[in-house]
Amino acid sequence: MAACDTCIVRNRAICAALDHDELALLNQIGRRRNLSAGESLMWEGEDSILVANVIEGVLKLSTGTEDGREQIVGVVYPSDFIGRPFGPTTFHGVTALTDARVCLFGRSDFDAFARAHPALEHKLLERTLAELDRTRRWMLLLGRKSAGERLASFLLELSERLVIPACAHAFDDETAAAESGLRRFTLPFSRQQIADVLGLTIETVSRQFTRLKAEGAIDLPSRREVAIVDRRLLEAEAGN
Amino acid sequence: MAACDTCIVRNRAICAALDHDELALLNQIGRRRNLSAGESLMWEGEDSILVANVIEGVLKLSTGTEDGREQIVGVVYPSDFIGRPFGPTTFHGVTALTDARVCLFGRSDFDAFARAHPALEHKLLERTLAELDRTRRWMLLLGRKSAGERLASFLLELSERLVIPACAHAFDDETAAAESGLRRFTLPFSRQQIADVLGLTIETVSRQFTRLKAEGAIDLPSRREVAIVDRRLLEAEAGN
DNA sequence: CGATGGTTTGAGATATATCAAACCTCGTGG
DNA sequence: CCACGAGGTTTGATATATCTCAAACCATCG
Known about the structure:
- The structure is a homodimer.
- Chain A is α+β, with helices and mostly antiparallel strands.
- The first copy, chain A, folds into 2 domains: about 1-140, Jelly Rolls, CATH 2.60.120; about 145-235, Winged helix-like DNA-binding domain superfamily/Winged helix DNA-binding domain (Arc Repressor Mutant, subunit A).
- In chain A, about 40% of the residues lie in helices and about 25% in strands.
- The first copy, chain A, has helices at about 20-30, 105-115, 120-145, 145-160, 165-170, 190-200, 200-215, 230-240, and strands at about 30-35, 40, 50-55, 60-65, 70-75, 80-85, 95, 100-105, 185, 220, 225-230.
- In chain A, a hairpin with a 2-residue loop joins strand 10 (about 220) and strand 11 (about 225-230).
- Chain A is globular and about 55 Å long.
- Chains A and B meet through strand 4, strand 5 and helix 3 of A and strand 4, strand 5 and helix 3 of B.
- Chain A binds a DNA duplex through helix 7.
């Protein structure tokens, strides 16, 4: 039996474009791999040899300058696609933020398979277009928003993206609010990583956390946990 | 005779994926349109009803905050694709920076045509992936680079992107250097627009221009013209 | 416990923003 | 043809958000 049959992202990842037989073929060229938090799957500037689907966990995409400044240029969640198909080079590193599980393909195998299955390519196109939209909205944050606005925007986006779709309709109690995102969640980022997403320093991020808490927009039960106390206020702080 | 036959971007735009007959069909659903500098083709948040290929000219993609801060999130050149296919909303405005000419399609017509022609979708996918790479590299600039580095990076990118491919092999004299980009070019941006690309203010941009000139990296024959005097130095200033 | 790595808080430095004025450039009309 | 005006640009002086450097703090794990 193909591993795909029991895959929890089967219906949300680009694989949803495939029927049972096609999926069996794809399964033959792919393999699963577990990653521990902190482990890297690809490195910046490397030849593009692998692509993958995220099954579980959160990973970051990052680049940096010669002199060591780092910028996280994307964050991927279950069902997202990673890697650079149809091109020779990966422009950013990929590193697991939490323990993660991915479904890996050799790039050339995947490229060939995708070209032969337009429905799959179409899904990949839709996903890439959506990611481009999201990335461009992030440019507004990096270019024009204040530190406070950046952190507020970031927390709001996280609260939406961390919702596990399978659960979105199962609950709508305090754990998972169907409409507006999670009220409480665990950060898959350290303070330094948040700084690297927002283009700030760790100290500025920390100060904005304490400020948002002092103003009653959020609560911080522990370092890695955030509760949104006043969503309206947080949205106002995000200033879109 | 189809207008496409004489189109100067015929072999570089996504249309290159199509044969003569397919092109004739596409031509039936498209129309040309001229835009004057400053004219907008789409607005932020609008329903996505149009998509287009750029034939001639330079256009900006931009978003802003409620309170009027603006960020240019992309710049498109001849043969680039604009608009948001397969999605209901355009997340950014599209405005001509120079006089321009585009090949316009109704989005639903284009979507249908693209789905029926996988080779076209494939080209669009490659283009979207390349644009996503470029956009992510821009995030590093916005998140982590100084004003001087931003302007230097911007000028270097412009000098590459403004090369007219048709000429790239015809000349390699002082006008168009095949390898390293133009040595001298006209800015399709005002100072304010450059500020909006780089996430800076107009004054900071101006000061960095005069600094780069004083250091001998560039020359400014006029407000709208730039000559790269010392490319090495400019590259060093860009600090990648 | 005591060490260790991440985080928060503090004080001061600095790059960029802001506010304001002077300066070009170019088109217009006298 | 020249003066004028209007936008855009440059330069200057000052303010401020964020960074930098440094110390205190706190959880976690041996």
